[in-house]
Design brief:
By secondary structure, the protein is an all-alpha fold. The chain contains nine helices and no strands.
Length: 199
Amino acid sequence: MDAFISGFGLSLSLIFAIGAQNAFVLKQGIKKENVFIVSFLCAISDATLIFAGVSGFGYLVEQFPMLQTFARYGGFLFLLIYGLKSFYSAWTMSHELKPEGETPRSLLKTILLTLAFTWLNPHVYLDTVILLGSVSTKFGELAVVFGLGAMSASFVFFFSLGYGARLLAPLFKKAIAWKVLEFLIGFIMLTLAFVVLFS
């Protein structure tokens, strides 16, 4: 149980900080749009990367820095564009939670955005593949149990965030609250874009 709890606790502490992915899940949760698929994709992506780390693929990532370079510049462009889009929405639109006439984002677009927020973030590779992967080696034969604990934390966190966000829905019936959220998301995205680029 020590290995499982250690994996759970370390993984939870790494993903708990507010980031681009978490902000996106929060927004989808408030809108109640494709919450299950967004939460599941984030969790299963994390689990895949954690499995890769525990299986020793962190070594390969270190040996092929082009993977990190691609993630860095791809992530920067994606976060920059999405952040500017959020600022534009906060500045020009006057909308409530589900304004009349607004077309919800298609399932395919939601899936692609969710995957982009995860796989174009170079920090996710450092946290899951390299950091969790390297810590798992300290548990020897119990490294798999450590990894299962880390994966469990991802599922608990993302589903809690996605479905817990609906508690904020009454607040976002006011247009000003939605504008503030869009602005904050834009700020987070732009900040992270330059953190990713220069880190």
